[in-house]
Amino acid sequence: MNLQLLIVLALILYIVPLVLWVILKRRRNHSAVEEESMMNWMSRQPGMKKENPALSRFYQRSYVRSAQIPVFRSQVHRIRQRLAVVSPYDELTLRKETMKITYAVLLIVIGLILALALLGRSIPVVLLGMIGCLVLNGMLIDLFVHRVENRLLKDFRDFLEDNRHQFQSARMADEAIYEASQLAGHDMRLHGERMHEVLTSKDPDRSLSAYYEVAPNRYLKVFTGIARMIMEYGDKTTAKGSLYLNAIGKFVQDINFDLLRRNRLSYQLNSLTIIALMPILLSFPLQRWAEKYFPIMGEFYEGRIGMASKLMLYAVAVAAYVLIRKLAETEESRYMPKSGGIRWEKKMYEYRAVQFVVDRFVPRKNTKAHYSLSKLIKESNSPLMIEWLTLRRLLLGLIAALFVTGMFVSAHVNQVHRIWNAPTYVKGGLMIGRIDGIERQEAECRSEFDRRIMNEIHAGRMGWEDTVRSLVRESGGTTLNEIQQNEAAMRIIEKLVKVNSEYLRWWELLIAAAAGTAAYFIPLGIMRFQRRIRGMEMQNEVDQFRMLISILSQFDRMSVQVILEWMERFAIIFKPALQRCLLDYDGGPARALAALKNEAPFPPFVRLVERLENALERITILEAFDDLEMEQEYYREQKKETMDRLIESKANWGRDIGFAPVMFMLGAYIIVPFLYVSFMQMRDLIAQLSRI
């Protein structure tokens, strides 16, 4: 009854939002006056989509109500922070977009819980689904925010095309940006107006620095900086025409490459995330089918090995999903500025007892282990300190050990319950095929008979086997013959022996400790995986450096330090190394560049740094990079080839990881159980033949 009530509640929670949405949509025809006022307001917002005013009011009221609910307050605040970084919405639009993503995530999560409830038909399955949905919650938020990010990038590309046309008419960068922003979509219009404010402010350099802190992607940062230099030094006529228009063309080309790469990665990897999670949903109907047509397989699924196989399948599926999401992430979303606030690791580490334990596991300073761990944290762009990371690893290991121990205890309890209550079928028959009602009723009668006898037996006493035989003769003397009485007594004795053997063993505690140890190293494995994925994208970033330097080298007043500052502003993978180089630059440019080559020994990047070294004293910046323009076609083809290799490499990794849960499910739920059934049937058959 509790399970049915849970399913009904989940169904109501899933259908009610859809019904409300339909009702609000139909109210459009009955609110003409309100719609007219809303349209008047929206007409003053260029590029903004016209939506149902009743639906907009619903989003605004939902935002206010959700701020009063403790469960949803942090969720809504988290989504709002992410959107505020990506796009400078006005307050009403920001609230509306926040609630759109919130409702989308809630509908998906409730739909998954409902599917698990209908397929699993047990409360533990629903609880497992809730835990999994907590994990998916953050990933779904990232997914929806990425859509906003990609939409902004497309709007910026169109904005650049309009800006080109306006600049050719006005020949002024600020006027061209303002006119192009009025033709852009709502999000890009806000960014364009912010750029215009930067260029026309009393202190443009200070305003530009402030904009660098809030710009959602590097293209907007660099374009605004280029426009600021054009405003200060004026446009320049090069061999290919206007410097400003040439820069716009290169930006458009690079953004097109980036959008193409994102679309192809999304096409290759998005379906794999569904494939990675499908085994979790398919495991429940597959288990019920196997138990229906091969009843003896129920012993396998309910036993320790079966439960371990289930948990391993869930772990493999979730791990595959996380890794595929890491493969599909783009640079801008992965390196999103971290939101403010105090981390829970920091607050927990402040307790003396916790600090004492964590410090015992933190590598000592000035050691190779400490240096390697620090380098791994930096290269994976993690916001954690070594102490916080160690605390997270210890907690993960402890939770894994306790979880595995609880799994073994639950398996023992479940096995005892199954011995006492499961239908008892006659041994000797090949239990393949569906069980009819008569056989099942006879099996349940045997279980009831065995239970009555077992309730009167204390297996720890001396001579309890003889007591079982005497009770069987007394209870079944009229209905069972002597052979059946002996078989029933042996069956009950075997059940009692199995019940007494169900306790936590030392090797199970050893397995739990091994699982905790493995979980302790999981965060490091994820960070190393992320570092390796970043290594695949180094060439792509070097190609973007070439595009940036080809623009900057055309300016007359350009120095190596300024180029390094622009590279640091544009960089993602090489950003930490460039930051340290700029910090050490005043102590000696040659020494700082040499250290930069040692810290980032990627050959194409090293060649760029060597050209900057030549430009320190020997030649000018333009002479050091004069071949960038001459070999532009070669670099374009090289970049296309690099992008193809990168996507193909990620796709291969994604296919291997995405199909791993499917292969594991085939082994854990089909091959191994069938081998188990075959072995059990063969053993019973041999025992039958030996008696004959």
Automatic annotation (TrEMBL):
Naturally occurring in which organism (per UniProt): Saccharibacillus kuerlensis
Alphabetical UniProt keywords: Membrane, Transmembrane, Transmembrane helix
Protein name: Type II secretion system protein GspF domain-containing protein
Membrane-crossing residue ranges in chain numbering: 6-24, 101-119, 125-145, 269-287, 307-324, 394-413, 506-526, 657-679
